[in-house]
Amino acid sequence: MIVSLTDVKSGSKVRVARIKGGLGIRQRLNCLGIHSGDVMLLQKSGFMRGPVLVNIHGNQVALGRGIATKILVEVD
Amino acid sequence: MRITLVGQPNCGKSTIFNHVAGYKAITSNFPGKTVKYSISKMTFQGMTSDIVDLPGSYSMTSFDLAELEARKYLLREKIDVVINVIDASLLGRGLELTLQLLELNLPTVICLNMIDEAEAKGIIIDTDKLSRLLGVPIVTTIAHKGWGLNKLFETAFKVGQKSAKSESLNFSKDVEQVIKDLSEDIKKTDYTEKFNVPHRFLATKLLENDQDFIDEIKKKDTEFIKTVQGYQHQLEQCRDRSSDEVVSSERHHLSMQLYESVVKLSKPKKEIRNYLDSVLMHPVFGYISLVVIMYLFFNFVFYVGAIFEEPLLDFFYQFLPYAEETLGADSLLYHIVSGVVQGLAGGIAIVLPFLFPFLLGLAFLEDTGYLPRVAYLMDTFLHRIGLHGKAIIPLILGYGCTVPAVMATRILESERDRFITSVLTTMIPCAARITIIFGLVAFYLGPKAAIFVFVFNIIVVAIAGKILSNIMPEITPGMILEIPAYHVPSIKILLSKVWLRMKEFIVIAWPLLIIGSVVLSLLKHWNLEGFINQLISPVTLLLGLPVAVGVTLIFGVLRKELSMVMLVQALGVANISTVMSSTQIMTFTIFVLFYVPCVATIAVLIKEIGSKRTLFAIIFTFLIAIILATITRFVY
Q: Rounded to 10 degrees, what is the CA torsion of B143, B145, B148, B150?
């Protein structure tokens, strides 16, 4: 099932399916180690429309809500 | 010889730099605190060289101004040896930058820093193997303890003297072929000389759609751009993805392969800090902790400061009656002496007692890695005023000094966000203004009133942010921020950092305080003070302040501390509460809090946002100050 990162529950493991949006956002995410195909752990889903926190390759990254909606992920 | 430190944000470049250069570059535990490069001379085993600390960059494609600065430096300046610093606990990601650096064919040494952190995470690295695979020497270090740094520089000097050039690693065959073909075409042009980069580097960057290179070539040679687009198209066809994605995922896979072939994973150590975030970033407890931490910080500064302020003031003021007796109250010499004493007293008794604990507390929060957590917690609120979480970092730094805070706005991606955040940082009370809040409001009106000022200030900043983002509507690109691991701050580094910031006060502000006080004494002596006060009287009368404070407002533009220190002198009393009512003290503080940034800030604003927008910032903050202070006069 492919959903946006904002629709996933905290604590679930997801695989990045696709990053919507332009070159800019994709490259910035790539820099932090987020590529399509990568597996990451959603540590905290946003509350009060706040950012989400993911763990990718052993590193924590906070993603604003606008960015998180553009990341489509596969949930097991 | 010139040694250049390159690496991803927060990997420890500045810590290494400070180790050999003396504490010159501010280090903290959040990504992106170094926004411009620092250069220093260093001597190592009898050899001297320059060492350059570049801002961190995730990749050689730059997204914010700080990264751009690093890239420009790497491509344009003469470099004898590159030290590529990698946070060993994030080796996989760090290698992606390394692969791009190797493409530059510069003499390179890799420094695997924070090797202890990696081990704590259960990452054991076979450095010999990695060094063979990459074809460059590798040294492991723990920079904040100074461990391994001698060997690092020894190796760097050797590599620099041999000027052994690094070689790039190959991607998958089909992708590599396209890169090769484009490189051949580049060889026929003069672009490698023009941009001063190897052809392979340029080829991969062009395939990645690097805006800088593409725009530069587009200006003159649309034919060549077509050739590039042809190759981009080829890549897209091989992999069914956009060409930039093909290159970046190739690099990612290559890094991951390298990582997997040199790393043995074992069980990570159990540590308390791994559990801290479940409280400090919790939807409810996170905010409660934030308030508690700020409250403790406030009390620490207030109580430490209050212990010293009164006895020190008494100590200095006991000299004045002697001076008056011996020199005569009307003599010029007496006015100069009293000016010097009051300037000294202001610096030592009013400013330092609050400045030191404040800077210490701020340094502590910075080095533990708490600030990025605050950015995470505040993101949702900042969205409501049209900014995003990262903007909180310049705003928090603003509590230290506005100048570096304005420079820190470079970590924001959009120009509009940088402008709005710059204007807002000028309204955050810097250490100088905080000493005014503590020295005047907390001291005379009580700590509760001071907390009120801080809270009120945050509300005003939020409203001002809302107004500015409504004037400039634009959707902010959203926050992408690394949350680094917590670190226990090193006491030595904390004190060095506090000293570096205090030195700025002692060297620049103190002389100004003393000169300012002497000038004021002279103005009084020649009765010119009244003339200036007359000029400012429209403001002072509107705010219901004693006309005598007018002159202090002028001096406050030079250095914010001057307003308060000279207030004592302008009113001619040691205890301000005897001549100013609590309403007047509050009105004065509110006005000084917001009105016109100091000269140093104006200078940095002009550099960062341009003179027109700086003028806007000055008028905007002045209007806010006038309106709020007038309201305070009637309401408080």
A: 90
The complex's ipTM? 0.93
Summarize pLDDT for B260-313 with one digit per residue, the tens. 999 999 998 888 888 899 899 998 999 999 999 999 998 898 888 888 888 888
Nearest CA in chain A to B482: A61
Tell me: pLDDT of A48 over 80. no
Tell me which amino acid residue B575 is.
N
Say whether pLDDT at A41 is over 90: yes
B222 lies in the same domain as B318 = no
Encode pLDDT of B155-175 as tens digits. Answer: 999 999 998 889 999 999 999
- Assess if residue B400 is contained within a domain: yes
Q: What is the mean pLDDT of residues B567-589?
A: 89
Burial call B606-620: b when 16+ CB within 10 Å, e when fewer: eebbeeebbebbbeb
Q: Do B380 and A48 touch (CB under 8 A)?
A: yes
The Cα B281–Cα B552 span in angstroms is 43
**Do B134 and B198 have their domain in common?**
no
pLDDT tens-place string over residues B314-328: 888 888 888 888 888
**pLDDT digit string, tens, across residues B440-490:** 899 899 999 999 999 999 999 999 999 999 998 887 778 899 999 999 999
Residue B222 has pLDDT above 80, yes or no: yes
Q: Which of A27, A59, A63 sits opposite B93 (nearest CB)?
A: A59
Look at residues B157, B121, B115 and name the one whose alpha carbon lies nearest to residue B137: B157
Among chain A residues, CA nearest to B251: A30
Distance in angstroms (rounded) separating the CA atoms of residues A75 and A72: 10
Size of interface A-B (CB pairs under 8 A): 111
Domains along chain A with CATH numbers? 2-75 (2.30.30.90)
Q: Are residues B96 and B221 in the same domain?
A: no
**Cβ of residue A58 closer than 8 Å to a chain B Cβ:** yes
List the single residue in A26, A48, A64 with the smallest CB-CB distance to B245: A26
In a domain, B510, yes or no: yes
Give A-chain residues touching B248 at CB under 8 angstroms: 27, 30, 35
Cβ distance B209 to A24 less than 8 Å, yes or no, reads no
Taking the CA of residue A71 and the nearest CA in chain B, the distance in Å comes to: 12
Residues B361 and B442 placed together within one structural domain of the fold: yes
Distance from CA of B395 to the nearest CA of A (A): 18
| Residue of B62, B47, B30, B154 whose CA lies nearest to B484 | B30
